[in-house]
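Entry type: protein chain
Record version: 2
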Amino acid sequence: STYPHPQPHPHQYLTSYSHPFRHFCGVTIHATDSDFYLHSFCLCCKPYTPENQTAPNIRKFIDEILSEYGLSLNTNSFIITDNEPKIIAALRGTNRVGCSDHYINKILEHSFTLSKSGCVEVIQTFDVIKSLVASFRRSHRQSIEKDLLSHIGDFLKVFDDMIRTLNDETQPTLHKLIPLRMVLINHCSPKADDALSIIILKKFLSRWSM
């Protein structure tokens, strides 16, 4: 099979293995063949060497890596990245596509960590679970609302299924985004039999543009 016009996709991995932080930049190529099967190739993963992570430095580093392979960020290239401000700034002027998985994960993170989300019982449940994991001897099992925990798990399963679907590395998934978005919008609509805490969680999530 032939691979029509494979495009570079720079990814910046800011991964900590030990102190001090070690930063890496990886570049992969994705292309579909005549049967629309998605092929992914890792070109490289190199240590990030510039002194800081300003947008110009990140862009320069990515351009230098691509030039080693005779590639460039041109109008035929589509770059998929997370939605961090410095990455958006670094790739300004390119055909950048924000990562839906990253965006959805951030929305969920805000609902479970920000006090302004109003999801008090949900946040408290997660805090108790973290305490249990950190030290079983300081167990607060009696304070866990098992029914609420079950409701939260059922609610989050739809998000997990969607993220797994979009992460499929054997076929393109961009065409699935709109239908899956509608699934999430409907899923986040309060139902008559929802627990109060789940209704509050859904109302917070519905404020975001899924």
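Comment: Residues 146-166 form the longest helix (21 residues).
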